[in-house]
Amino acid sequence: MISMTKRSFNKTLLGGLTALATIAGMTFSASAADKITVGALRFTSHAPSFVAFEKGYFTDEGLEVEFKFFQAAQPMAVAIASGDVDFGITAISGGLINLADKGAIKVIGGALQEEPGIDGQIILVSKMAYEDGVTSPAQLKGRSFGITQVGSSFHYMASKIAEKEGFSTADIKLVPLQKVGALIGALKSGQIDSWTIVPHIAKGLVKSPEIFQIGVVADYIPDYQVTTVFTSTEIAENKQDIAKRFLAAFSKGADDFNAALVDKTEGEEGATAMVELIHKYVYADRPIEKAAPSIRNGAMRINKDAALNLTNVTDQLNWFKAEGLVKESITIDTLVNTNFVKTF
């Protein structure tokens, strides 16, 4: 009888300790999540972050994510440097490079890239310009070209188009309008002659009678690394585990996005489900039936495992130097930390 009581007591004690250990483990797991803020634009090309969030990939990596949305690349870079945002996915800008030179920012991966056979960024002109003979990029000399800001990716693309067509950036009138919405309005009204933008916006615009397509950026910048993943130097150097976990979750989101809308290996059901997920963040103010075509149109390749096209990023850096937008002394190592992903 006494022996039975001891066994019962031991069993009860063991069970209680196990339960306490389980509760403690659950409490630790719940409190162990690292809170991060991710900067993004409401573009289809930013979908991997949205997918990773919605499918729990960030949670699986022990990350609690909050999004902060921007309308241009350079303000996001400033937010990273100030600590308001931890990770950003957007184009390289002069502002970003200058912040890297100050030791505030590092590029740690690649995202959107132009790829042969996949619809990419489209060169557009207003109806007024088109009817005045601007029917190809070769006629952009002497014309106005919309950009968000001096030193933006739009500035880089305009310059590369001019270079290949045999004239200089100075031969184009660059018009900085800060926001994508303002650029769309200016092009429709003929206040600017030309612009270039990702396909989910461009394809919708060319359906209107006010805007015409005259070329594609891929013909001027092959393998253009359009957007990159970047973070603060503090995280890149002193909190590398968080950066690795972010990139792992982001990459899973990119795999799902590519499979559903780029490679189309998930069938129509998978594509529809992906569009519905993205619609929570992109064109959310439109009914799904109107938003879906634009979201599908924006399906450009996101680099697998966030691999970075270092060759093109180096070309971008050299262009910024040549234009006098950043210091000549800045090196690729100043801008990029290559410890996190494959480069090519």
TrEMBL record:
> Which biological processes are named by the entry's GO terms?
alkanesulfonate transmembrane transport
Q: Which Gene3D superfamilies match?
A: Periplasmic binding protein-like II
- Pfam families from the entry? NMT1
Q: Where is the signal peptide?
A: 1-32
Q: Which compartments is it annotated to reside in?
A: Periplasm
Q: Which InterPro entries match?
A: Solute-binding_3/MltF_N, SsuA/THI5
| Assigned GO CC terms | periplasmic space
Q: What is its main location?
A: periplasm
Q: What are the alphabetically sorted keywords of the record? A: Signal
Q: Which residues form the Solute-binding protein family 3/N-terminal domain?
A: 35-269
Highest taxon above the source species = Bacteria
Tell me the protein family, please.
Belongs to the bacterial solute-binding protein SsuA/TauA family.
User: What's this protein's name?
Assistant: ABC transporter substrate-binding protein
Organism of origin: Sneathiella litorea
The root-end lineage is:
Bacteria, Pseudomonadati, Pseudomonadota, Alphaproteobacteria, Sneathiellales
